[in-house]
Specification:
GO terms for molecular function: calcium ion binding. This protein has strands at residues 17-21, 24-28, 33-35, 42-44, 53-59, 75-85, 96-100, 109-113, 122-123, 129-135, 143-152, 154-157, 184-187, 214-217, 226-230. The chain has a four-stranded antiparallel sheet with strand order 5-10-7-8, with no helix packed on it. The protein has a three-stranded antiparallel sheet with strand order 9-6-11, with no helix packed on it. Strands 1-2 form a two-stranded antiparallel sheet. Among the domains are: 10-44, Laminin (Ribbon); 47-152, Jelly Rolls (Sandwich). By secondary structure, the protein is an all-beta fold. It has no helices and 15 strands.
């Protein structure tokens, strides 16, 4: 009989040291590290079991005119990181931050983040974003600092009950910002049509609407048939 050398291929999958035993093998960590519960990876510290801290955050913006508890309809939540330092791991298996495109951890995930590289800004498709930060019982880092804001545009679902859409987050309190370029996709159930009815309209006026304007298309993007370009205060 010959005993197979499991450590000869890819170090047996061990992150540090692979030790052959009769009929099997074991992974071992260098000094200052402990074996992860998956029996292959190693991590700093002397505590191998997990103590989990979960922080749930729903980012929102109060809209003073109607008391809406979420971001202004038609605006997306944007998360911008200014500082970021979380325990490094190739697959972010230890300490990590998860960001979801919605109001729960069941929403589509926008990113699972760790390490010390500053992540790119994350933008939700709608007006809700969910964050979950998890740290285990060993290895602490500085953490992260981020700012949340709104960005216009996004995908909105049209239903039988009318819903609002606003040009900018501070509608009613401030004029819309300069250099705005906002795209909204309004989608209804198959077999239904989308109706857009303006309740308030005040956009810079010009004969051909060549400056500020709102443009509507009968389809998914700008290649669809144009329904009109509007400006002024009519």
């Amino acid at each position: 009989f010959l005993d197979k050398d499991e450590c000869s291929k890819d170090n047996g999958g061990c992150q540090h040291e692979c030790i052959n035993t009769v009929g099997s093998y074991v992974c071992q960590c260098r000094n200052g590290f402990v074996l992860h519960e998956n029996k292959h990876d190693c991590k700093e510290g002397g505590i191998a079991n997990y103590c989990t801290l979960i922080l749930y955050i729903i980012l929102h913006y109060l809209f003073p005119k109607n008391g809406n508890p979420w971001a202004t309809p038609g605006q997306r939540v944007k998360l911008t990181f200014n500082e970021f330092e979380i325990e490094q791991h190739q697959e972010c298996a230890y300490d990590h931050l998860e960001v979801f495109d919605g109001e729960t951890e069941k929403s589509p995930i926008l990113g699972r983040l760790c390490g010390n590289k500053l992540p790119d800004p994350l933008i939700a498709t709608g007006n809700k974003m969910f964050l979950r930060f998890i740290s285990d019982a060993s290895v602490q880092r500085k953490g992260f600092q981020a700012t949340h804001s709104t960005e216009c545009g996004g995908r909105l679902k049209a239903e039988a009950k009318p819903k609002d859409l606003y040009s900018h987050a501070q509608f009613g309190d401030n004029n819309y910002p300069v250099q705005a370029d906002c795209d909204w996709l309004l989608v209804a159930e198959r077999g239904a049509r989308v109706e857009l009815s303006f309740q308030t309209f005040e956009v810079e006026e010009e004969a051909d609407c060549g400056y500020d304007y709102v443009e509507l298309f009968d389809g998914h993007d700008k290649s669809a048939m144009r329904l009109g370009r509007f400006c002024g205060s009519g």
